[in-house]
Amino acid sequence: MTTSDIIASTRTTSTPKPTPTEPDPSSVTPGVLGFLVVFLLALVTWLLLRNMTGRLRRLRFREEQRQSQLPPAVPPAEPTEPTQPPPGPQRPDDGAPRG
Length: 99
Fold this sequence. Notes:
Helices cover 49% and strands 0% of the residues. The protein is mainly alpha-helical. It has a domain of 32 residues. The chain is elongated, with a radius of gyration of 44 Å. The N and C termini lie far apart (131 Å).
């Protein structure tokens, strides 16, 4: 057999194509491993939420304690004299009488 005979024989024979078949729905399941993964994710999520809730409660309690220890807030007194000139046009005072 020569190389051309081998090439000619591969061209004439076709490769059989597999027929697509659907798997049996009862045999395709997540199994025990899938259940364990979902269960562990749910458990970790629950633990994180529980921890976060406890931290938020402690934070609120500490803030309330800090606020109760501070003296009551006194509003600042209003100044008796204005610190800035009133708004409006400014005229230079040359000392000349007006009128």
